[in-house]
Each structure stands twice: as structure tokens, then as C-alpha cells.
Amino acid sequence: MSMPLQSNLPAATKRIDKKALISIALAWAFDAMDFSILTFVLLDIMKDYHVPLTLAAGVTSATTFARLGGGFLGGLLGDYWGRKMTLVLSILWFSVFEFLTGFSLGFTVLYLVRILYGLGMGAMYASGTPMLMEMMPAKWRGLASGLMQSGFSFGYIFAAIIYREWYTKLGWHSMFYIACVPALLVMLYIWWKLPESPRWKLERAVRHKRSIPLSQLFVKGNTWTTIHAAIIAIVAFSLTYPMNTLYATLLKSQGHFEPTVVANTIILLNVAGIIGNILGGWLSDIVGRRTIIIISAIGTLLCSFVFEFITHDVLRDILTFLIGLFSIGGVWAAIPTYLAEHFQTNVRSTGQGTTYHIGAALGGAVVPLIVSEIASSVGGLAHAMTYFVVGASVVMILFTVMWRESKGVPLD
User: Cα separation of 179 and 78, whole Å?
Assistant: First the structure.
């Protein structure tokens, strides 16, 4: 099937589709913005709802864990219905529950609303990323991967700006009302302006029957691909999510910094992540996915002691930038395209969405809970974050060596 698919694709799909790149990257950025706002208000949740840090952080972890269900269901629908329809519905879904987060008058309600929000976030990535990768020519796929993944850092920056500008004036509930608007605007643009993935349409046309592609994850040589992709995703999330979830809390609780300092530090972290994603994605098209991830994991390892020096302004800023460049940036730059390049078109959305969000559930949801839980027994939150980032960096290096390089492969 590989040759007919490649040879029959219209010429328009062999050039960079700027509309797809911009709109899907923005959708992911605003999705990440909505998700990240919660990390700035964990102390407010603890105070307002009288819960300990572990339970407050558990809201973010529950959201992340729910992304597995959303990634799985969104992946199935993306392969069955099409990428575009699933993408539009997922953006609408998470925007609605982002708005409802502001109305959460109790901890239980907040918990449930954020779980439902997580379903939409998972489905958005499961449909949007394969769609973008299918619209990119092989020689630019790594750069597109890095640009899209940088959307998460842009989202974190947007969240930090909202926190800096409106938190003191409007309170934490109102931040969620503001955050849902941009994603809805992007959703409307995608619905009106973005076509369905031509590669998905062609594959659908030559398939003999319409079927849910779940079983295809474990047949025709896909078993190891599915397992290995899930392991890589788990380790990648374990490396970055202690920072994404708990760095702002560490700055507020241990550093006792004002909102401006907290927000500026998080912005610096994610500006570096954007640079690392774009640079890493571009370089991965030249030297390969594996090389970029190994170098970035080594860089993350060398900068992992940043959390021990948050009270030293200059050293904190330098190390924050470097660890953002290597971890949030470099390590993640190749992940979207690597996953896409290892699954066939008929199962790409399901495979990518499911394995990515297995990583989100175990590495992104469970690891921050473990970090916050063991903090008191290992000398504080800074020590716990350092230990997990170090461990994940080493494991990432070891498992990346076992990767099959996928640079330049056709998407069949």
C-alpha cells in the first residue's frame, strides 16, 4: 500500500501547508495554556478547598491521566471519522470544560470538571498531530514536529501572562473564563479553512471496509512499535512534568517569590523550550531523531540541579533557560514526528494518540504525585524534583539507543 499512497497524493500535499501548521500548533498552544493555568494556582486550591499539596497536585495529575482516555477515543475517531472532525470536536469539548472550571465551587466538582477537560485535551493531540504530520513532506517533518511541540511552551507562556496580569485583579477563577476564548476562535478557523488530511482520505478510499483500527496496534509487526513508543512517551513525560507541574509551586513555596518573579521564571523556561523545539526539530531533519534526543537528555542531566539554586537569581535564570532548552525543547522536539513515522496511516491516530497519552498518564500524572508525596522524606520538593529529572534523563538515553531511526521515512 505504501507506493500507491505516496504516488497518488496530490501535489498540494507535498509542500508545507502553512495553514495546517499554524492552526494546529495554535490549537495545541491554547490547549496547553488552559492546562497550565492550573499549575499556577495549586496553592490557591490548597487554601480555598483545605486540601494538602498532594491532593491539589492530584487535580493536574487526574487531568493528565484522563488524557489517556481522550487520546485513545480521539485516536479511534480520528482514524475512523477523519482527523478534522475529531480535532474540531475535541477543541470544543475542552474549551467548554475549561470555562466550567471557573465555576467549580468545591474540590470534588473541580476534580470532575478537570477530568472531563482532560478527555478533550487528549483527543485534540491524537487527531491534530497525525493530521499535521500527514500534510508535511518528509524533509520538513522534523521541523514541523518541533514547531508544533513548541506550542506547549507557548501555551505555558500565555498562561504565565494571564497569571501575571489578571490573577491579582480578578482572582484565580476568572483566569479560566479568559483562557477558553482563543481556542474556540482557532476551532472555528480549522472548521472553515482547513481541509481533511489528503493522506487519510486516500487511505480511506482504498480500504475495503470501515473498521475501528484498535486491533491493528498489535498485528503486522506493530506490537513492538506500540510498546516501545509507549515506553519512550512515559520516560519523556517523567523527565519534563515534574517541572511543568511543580516548578511554579516550588518558586512560590520555597522561594517565596511574588507572582511577577514566578511568572517571569516560567516564561523564561518556556521561551527556552520554544527555541529548543524549533532548533531540535530542524536539526532532527539533518542528523536524525535519535541523535537530537540523546544530546538533549544529556544536557537535561547536566542542568538538573537548577531546583537547588532558585534563590540565586542569576544562576536560577541561566539554569532555567538551559534545562528548558534541552528538556522541554530538545527532548520533545522529535517525539511527535517519531511516533507518527512508526505507525501506518490506518492506525496512526490511534497509535500516536494512545501511546503518547499512556506516557501522559504514567509519566505526566503519576510521577508528579510521587514527587510531591516523597518531597518531605528526601529533604524537600527541590530534591525530589532533581532526583526524578536525573533518573528520567538516564533512562531516556538508554532507551533512545534502542530506537529505530525514522528520519525521512515515507508515511504509508
Answer: 26
